[in-house]
């Protein structure tokens, strides 16, 4: 079943209406020849060419919701090693993961400074192909977040990827932020199982 955000005003919640207005404005500005990206450190990348979030902002008046324009790069060496007429699923998963990282930075600004983010699970549902010639947007919501000592500790986020008013895919990520000592213990335990 496709979740359709074809913008029937009576069916939209407040966040969706805010997202719709922003998407319409960003669509008018869309230029596929211009590569705009967020700072690579926000998405935990070393190289700019691996950043798939063009811009992102917290929706004003919305609770724990972030909208982003995503990068469409059909020249990316890894994801387009052979001809494709659409964005590959793995590209979309990485773009959604990166949006989650940007969302953590925008909504919980000190979270990743204090602890690494560990993704514990991903659930993905694709509804249609993502086309190469149209802008692609992501809508991120954090419906469940555990705050411990005033900081984000555990989260479950939802990402909708939207193109031309249709949902391309739905993504659910579960994760946590852990301190350096706990991260080290996880790494040691994982390497001992080999």
Annotation keywords:
27% helix, globular, six-stranded antiparallel beta sheet, alpha+beta, 194 residues, single chain, Thiol Ester Dehydrase, Chain A, 4 helices
How do the strands and helices of this protein lay out in sequence?
Elements: H1 14-29, E1 53-58, E2 65-70, H2 89-107, H3 111-114, E3 117-126, E4 136-148, E5 151-163, E6 166-177, H4 180-192
Antiparallel strand pairs: 1-2, 2-4, 3-6, 4-5, 5-6
How would you describe this structure to a colleague?
This protein has 194 residues and is of the alpha+beta class. The chain has one domain (9-192): Roll (Thiol Ester Dehydrase, Chain A), CATH 3.10.129.10. The chain is built from 4 helices and 6 strands, in the order αββααββββα. The longest helix is centred in the middle third of the chain and has 19 residues, at 89-107. It is globular and about 45 Å long.
Summary, kept brief:
This protein is an alpha+beta fold and 194 residues long. The protein contains 4 helices and 6 strands, in the order αββααββββα. It has one domain: Thiol Ester Dehydrase, Chain A (Roll).
Question: According to CATH, what is the topology?
Answer: Thiol Ester Dehydrase, Chain A
> What is the string of SSEs from the N terminus onward?
HEEHHEEEEH
Helix content: 25-40%
| Total E-strand runs | 6
Spatial strand arrangement across the major sheet: 1-2-4-5-6-3
Biggest β-sheet strands, sense, barrel: 6 strands, antiparallel
Overall structural domain count = 1
Q: Quick one: overall form? A: globular
CATH architecture: Roll
Identify low-pLDDT runs.
1-12
CATH class: Alpha Beta
The secondary-structure class comes to alpha+beta
């Amino acid at each position: 079943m496709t979740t359709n955000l074809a913008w029937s005003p009576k069916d939209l919640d407040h966040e969706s209406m805010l997202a719709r207005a922003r998407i319409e404005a960003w669509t008018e500005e869309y230029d596929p020849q211009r590569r705009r990206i967020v700072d690579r450190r926000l998405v935990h990348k070393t190289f700019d060419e691996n950043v798939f979030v063009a811009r992102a902002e917290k929706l004003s008046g919305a609770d724990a919701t972030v909208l982003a324009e995503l990068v469409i790069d059909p020249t990316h060496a890894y994801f387009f090693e052979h001809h494709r007429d659409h964005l590959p699923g793995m590209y979309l998963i990485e773009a959604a993961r990166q949006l989650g990282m940007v969302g953590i930075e925008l909504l919980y600004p000190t979270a990743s400074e204090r602890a690494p983010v560990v993704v514990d699970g991903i659930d993905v549902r694709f509804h249609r192909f993502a086309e190469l010639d149209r802008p692609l947007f992501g809508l991120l919501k954090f419906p469940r977040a555990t705050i411990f000592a005033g900081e984000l500790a555990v989260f479950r986020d939802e990402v909708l990827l939207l193109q031309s008013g249709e949902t391309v895919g739905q993504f659910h990520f579960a994760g946590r932020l852990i301190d350096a000592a706990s991260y080290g213990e996880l790494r040691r335990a994982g390497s001992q199982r080999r």
